[in-house]
Amino acid sequence: MPGHDLALLTDAVLAAGKIALRYWKNSPRAWEKDAGAGPVTEADLAVNDLLAERLRSARPDYGWLSEESIDTAERRQAHRVFIVDPIDGTRAFMAGEDTFAHSLAIAEAGRIIAAVVYLPALDRLYTASAASPAMRDGRPIRASTRPGTAGATLLATRPTLGESYWPGGVPDVKRSFRASLAFRLCLVAEGRHDGMLTLREAWEWDIAAGSLIAQSAGAAVTDRFGRPLRFNAEHPQAAGVIAAAPGVHAELLTRLSA
Prior knowledge:
alpha+beta, Fructose-1,6-Bisphosphatase, Chain A, domain 1, D-Maltodextrin-Binding Protein, domain 2, 2 domains, 5-stranded mixed β-sheet, 30% helix
């Protein structure tokens, strides 16, 4: 079933990309969500509508969790659940940048079993499933094997590397940043960066797909405390995310918890 689900997600995400590109650099209507939840655009909602119609009609027994849909308790009872971010990196999308992504995943018993991340402006597709390896545009990818943090490239916000977070000492890394968490995880998966880190609570829809892709590529992926990520939780957030080459990941955890 993961293979069939991966094909379903792939077809849906490519269709979503066509919708998003109609709005990109075309001044889409945008507004702020309630409770400081960030911006949303008419493109986010159009993509969400397309994905909901395609995916839910194909798998009516699957649950549904999306950033742009009202969450209900019903998904918790489903054997499998779609976890969707219609546009991850909405601010980048609004600014006309090309690193926004669509992030689609399926969880079963708390684990991701199929995942796709697509960057339509770059026409770049990342995939993985429980039955297939991590791929970029149909070619296998592998995470970095760097043994430690010295000289490592780390995707993180500037405040994340503040001294107050690191009782074991701030790691000696070269910091970069991308707005989309899903894309950051995929960059780790293909070895373009040695790791990514967020210490803030992370919504499941931002990290579900990318976490499987990174893990399938050989990266170690946990929350900020080193615990395995679990999905379809009642409150769908993780306690941060660390995804990195195993040696880098181990040292980051040691420095965070020293």
